[in-house]
UniProtKB/TrEMBL annotation:
Keywords: DNA-binding, Phosphoprotein. One of its GO terms (biological process) is phosphorelay signal transduction system. SMART domains: REC. One of its GO terms (molecular function) is DNA binding. InterPro entries: CheY-like_superfamily (IPR011006), EvgA-like (IPR051015), NreC/VraR/RcsB-like_REC (IPR058245), Sig_transdc_resp-reg_receiver (IPR001789). PROSITE patterns: RESPONSE_REGULATORY. The keyword Phosphoprotein applies. PANTHER family: HTH-TYPE TRANSCRIPTIONAL REGULATOR YHJB-RELATED, NARL SUBFAMILY. This is DNA-binding response regulator. Coiled coil: none annotated. The keyword DNA-binding applies. SUPFAM superfamilies: CheY-like (SSF52172). Residues 7-123 form the Response regulatory domain.
Length: 206
């Protein structure tokens, strides 16, 4: 049995779509669906209870607009990846989702059998999107590609703080810090912690 599966939560008001996603994830060894919800009301509580690694977010919900709630979700659940999962294939919506902080943008029209591979790209710290947006999927350079926790840790590493001091000042667990460092290594395209520190000190401006 595959251990330590990554946890996925879907926010989608269409039961058929939720069922399809559940089946697609069940066919993978890396992911499992741990929760599903159909709107913003009560969503934060459900996320807190299930603690997902990835949130699949539809943009058209019963009483909410996914784009409007996305920034607050990123702020309140900084370690959780948020992937927009939608039928909206226009460039304006795509760019607005990227601007709002989405970690990926996947169309429901994509082959569901590719969902697991797409989510793995996100867990590797890279932005994932459907093919038609691939030429525009790169996030803008600079701090906009990092969440607030990552920005804080980048600043501490640039100042030469030890990991023990970073851990104390960030007030997070060792496991959470390890996840952030993995994410940062992916975003800076380096493989080791010393490489990460070096590139932060050399290329990140204060």
């Amino acid at each position: 049995m595959f251990k330590n599966k990554k946890r996925v939560f879907i926010v989608e008001d269409n039961l058929l779509i939720r069922t399809a996603v559940k089946r697609a994830l069940a066919a993978t060894e890396e992911f499992e669906l741990v929760g599903e919800w159909d709107d913003n009301v009560g969503l934060a509580k459900q996320i807190g209870l299930t603690r997902p690694d990835i949130l699949l977010l539809d943009l058209r919900l019963k009483e909410s607009d996914g784009l409007e709630i996305l920034p607050d979700l990123k702020k309140n659940f900084q370690l959780m990846k948020i992937v927009v999962y939608t039928m909206k294939d226009d460039m304006v919506t795509f760019r607005n989702a990227v601007k709002a902080g989405a970690d990926g943008y996947i169309l429901k029209s994509d082959n569901p059998l590719t969902l697991g591979a797409s989510l793995q790209v996100v867990m590797d710290g890279k932005f994932v999107t459907s093919k038609q947006f691939s030429q525009n999927s790169k996030k803008p350079e600079g701090d906009s590609k990092f969440n607030s926790l990552e920005i804080s840790i980048i600043g501490q590493l640039k100042q030469g703080h030890t990991l023990a001091k970073v851990l104390a000042e960030a007030n997070i667990s060792k496991e959470q810090l390890e996840e952030v460092l993995i994410s940062l290594k992916g975003k800076f395209d380096v493989k080791s912690f010393p490489e990460l520190v070096r590139i932060i000190r050399e290329k990140v401006t204060a």
